[in-house]
# Entry
Amino acid sequence: MGAMDKVLGMALIGAGAAIFVYYTLWVLVMPFLAEGHWLAPFFPLSHWAGVLLPAVLLVVGLSLAATFIGVVMMRSGKKKSAGGGAPAAKGPKAKKDD
# Structure
């Protein structure tokens, strides 16, 4: 595994951990703090946390996954058609018993 893969992996793990901590604070801690608290400006309104944000992320995530699968399927279809089709079967042909 290359050094760049390790750096990218660590960056993704760090970003995931930061997002988890932010969302956890937003959902579990912010409802119990006063509106004028110094942390309040760093978080959107709480109704975004329960319904709107997860719904938007679900739609975007499913769209990206479907697009990725579609692109992979189209590329694999082009490779098969450019390769001349399926290879011929090897070995003796089965005989029919009459």
Remarks:
- The two ends are 59 Å apart (CA to CA).
- The chain has two domains: 1-43, 46-78.
- Helices lie at 3-29, 47-82.
- Residues 46-78 form one domain.
